[in-house]
């Protein structure tokens, strides 16, 4: 879902950069030093998952896993995703540096919002799996909508590409939902402290989450 460099218009690039700065400004104070290691691990998972991609016009179709980062990291998903995208742009020219703000906003804002909405349901085993699936799937869907919107706002020439990218990610969101559900379920068994909702952590049950 990387939007290539030189595609988007100036106003869209500016709006994306501003949205990314707001997200970083809100999220960085919510990332304690003791949780930087876990944020780095999930950032690396995001980096690797999105390396294998299929080019599609000015964008690409690939695994994103932003819903997993949102579920596990909460607000800290924003800097984790932004750092991974920066390294991809620097090392592999995926998306480019000028589009970093837009690409970060496209992938990080849905991750954070879906994580905040779905994580409270992880406390109950019966609702954990569907909540994790929704978090993974909805994050991709919202990212697809934002990506299509950014392309459409950059000119009528990109309308067809915007619809193509959005439709191409419909199968991806199902796959991402299933993967997120499986990974959250596994972590709930082996590292339950990572899956506890914020209120359980506050009660002293062991907090590994960075919300």
Short description:
The protein is mainly alpha-helical and 211 residues long. It has helices at residues 10-27, 36-49, 66-73, 77-92, 100-118, 125-153, 159-168, 170-190, 198-202; strands at residues 53-56, 59-62.
Plain-language structure description:
By secondary structure, the chain is mainly alpha-helical. It is 66% helix and 4% strand. The protein is built from nine helices and two strands. The chain has helices at 10-27, 36-49, 66-73, 77-92, 100-118, 125-153, 159-168, 170-190, 198-202, and strands spanning 53-56, 59-62. Strands 1-2 form a two-stranded antiparallel ribbon. Strand 1 and strand 2 (59-62) form a beta hairpin. Helix 1 (10-27) packs across helix 5, helix 3 (66-73) packs across helix 5 and helix 3 (66-73) packs parallel to helix 8. The longest helix has 29 residues, at 125-153. It starts with 9 loop residues before the first helix and ends in a 9-residue tail after the last helix.
């Amino acid at each position: 879902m990387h939007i290539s460099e030189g595609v988007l218009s100036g106003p869209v690039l500016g709006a994306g950069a501003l949205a990314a700065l707001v997200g970083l400004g809100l999220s960085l104070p919510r990332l304690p030093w003791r949780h930087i290691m876990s944020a780095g691990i999930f950032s690396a998972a995001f980096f690797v998952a999105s390396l294998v991609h299929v080019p599609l016009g000015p964008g690409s179709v690939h695994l994103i896993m932003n819903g997993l980062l949102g579920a596990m990291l909460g607000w800290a998903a924003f800097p984790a995703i932004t750092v991974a995208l920066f390294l991809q742009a620097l090392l592999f020219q995926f998306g480019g540096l000028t589009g970093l703000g837009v690409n970060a906003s496209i992938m990080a804002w849905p991750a954070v919002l879906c994580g905040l909405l779905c994580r409270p349901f992880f406390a109950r085993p019966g609702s954990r799996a569907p909540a994790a699936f929704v978090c993974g799937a909805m994050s991709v869907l919202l990212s697809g909508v934002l990506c299509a919107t950014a392309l459409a706002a950059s000119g009528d020439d990109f309308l067809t590409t915007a619809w193509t990218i959005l439709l191409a990610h419909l199968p991806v969101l199902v796959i991402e939902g299933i993967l997120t559900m499986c990974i959250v379920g596994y972590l709930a068994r082996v590292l339950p402290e990572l899956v506890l909702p914020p209120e359980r952590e506050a009660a002293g049950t062991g907090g590994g989450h960075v919300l």
